[in-house]
């Protein structure tokens, strides 16, 4: 055989061998790619495919031994191709799993922000002119990493959401009152902060950034410029800025946590509870107990364990994981005279421990009791019906004990208010020997201070309306609270131009103020006093005269009862 024929024959054989090797490598890669996508559906919690690979091997060894044996029989080269495919398959599934429905909500949030910008800049409503270009949207959300079909779908959904959000927000802005009052400034600032906070949280989540509401939070001067607040009064401007910052933080954190929960956390426990009630206990011991007749129709109870890196705990010592609990109640019917019990396993110091609920980025104590190695609390069904609550057990190392309420009729309510930092009491030599003076009258200023804490008022720095009083010097240390209450119409001064902050407040005055705070002038103190008498065997002096002075204990009880719906 001559040299040319030998060369041609060698080339043919080499090509066949090479193509067979390439085909085998591609087959191993495709197998890995398929397994990576399948495993993402089983456990989507890993940040990347390499992290998921080790757990995958453990999983198939137990659940799919035939697949495990097939992989185990691979040579080193084939195994490398398989693992490369697995990593790509897992990460591709993770990327494609981002539903383009998110694009609509992202577009709506950004549309609302642009509408407010155009409105305050004096421009006409024109959503198409404000809409970012396709390329800008792609860069904004890093869509180059996605498939072209996904990118096209995302952009189309984004534009539709943008148009809806822009037109709705611009129409609302046209109907809004002029930029004058503190009350209106707070409302407008909170609305703007909520929209921008949600929008930036969705963007950060989509880009894979960490949760950090301060990353893009506007400075005060930038808020003023963006929303043209200099067109309004100083009172409006100051209130808008404070309302914006507070609501931005709440909206950003809640949105980011919700997105992460929806994408990466499977339900720890989910089950149907009939109208006859029942118990649900998750694998790690947290449980919920529903009394018969609490819900009039079957409901679905879901318990999720949360990622603790998305929460701040302050000075509290965490003694459990963080959980979200929700009852999906399609019928919406329930009996709020019954209670739902939440229980955690707990083995530590019972004196300092308690169950807490996250409300507006603050952990709030829920009255807790112990039964052996279990800590439990009872809550209103309405606080969990179609509403997700976030709970954890904490140790409070700074717990304050008030020595003069140990045998008092309002002890549970007063101590709960102390644990919630609504009541601080009077100082003692240490934090364990202060007093509350429950039978003492409460002053006008003290009453407003407690209201501001339990209602979580956003307090602007603008206090001019409070400085008009002749006796302003007597309450300068809490003039922001009084200024806020004045701006909302909760309180007024006396005809001689004084506010008299240290005057004891009467039952009648409390009735008027609480009616205004609740937005319902149907609030009746006597109804609450009657409830107090039957529940606590305590007869209020208000039955003798509505103009008598209310006591500190009665105020604690009233605020506790009126605000149970929050907790």
Describe this structure in words.
- The protein has 18 helices and twelve strands.
- Strands 1, 4, 5, 6, 8, 9 and 12 form a seven-stranded antiparallel beta sheet that branches.
- Among the domains are: 3-96, no CATH class; 269-398, Sandwich (Chondroitinase Ac, Chain A, domain 3); 416-566, no CATH class.
- 37% of the residues are buried.
- The chain has 567 residues and is an alpha+beta fold.
- Residues 1-22 have low confidence and may be disordered.
- The chain has helices spanning 3-42, 49-63, 65-72, 76-96, 101-120, 127-130, 134-140, 148-175, 182-206, 220-226, 234-264, 411-419, 444-454, 464-467, 479-487, 507-517, 525-536, 552-562, and strands at 269-273, 278-281, 287-290, 299-305, 317-318, 323-328, 340-345, 353-359, 362-366, 368-371, 374-379, 389-395.
- Strand 8 (353-359) and strand 9 form a beta hairpin.
- Helix 2 (49-63) crosses helix 3, helix 5 (101-120) runs antiparallel to helix 9 and helix 12 (411-419) crosses helix 18 (552-562).
- The chain is globular and about 95 Å long.
